[in-house]
Amino acid sequence: MPNSVINLTADRYFSAILALLAAIFFVVIGGKADPGSAGNLSASTYPRIILSVIILISIYLAFKPTNAHASKAKLSLPGIVSILLMAIYIALLEPIGFFILTPILLILLPLLAGFRSYRWILISVLCVTLTIYGVFVLVLNIPLPPGLLGD
User: Fold this and answer.
1) In terms of domains, do 44 and 90 share one?
2) Which of 37, 72, 119, 138 would give a disulfide with 42, using CB separation of 3.0 to 4.6 Å?
């Protein structure tokens, strides 16, 4: 007999919270219209599409039926710390700057995941940071937040 009762496991809580956050962002982004946008497309169109997909998938995951033998998901401390680090990164990116915070974050995340090849961590940090710089500043001509390093 299938289990029709919704088990309140950690993954269901997470998907419900994710759907709520995505809905909040969807509403907030709606007020950010691009003054020079042509037609119906604006700078908020793509993020709103992505947020809509996140909301739909999160709702599906929150209410999908599970069997009686499904294992209970456990909250992972490194996962929670990673999410908190990303939130701190976003909050401090403007005042501290891209070139200070990004390498720190890119070093901490693999260490948090248990990766201990320090040479490869440093190589990947340099490659990712320089690639992001190249794409945004050199190709797209979009400045990155300088923060403490000034203009």
Assistant:
1) no
2) 37
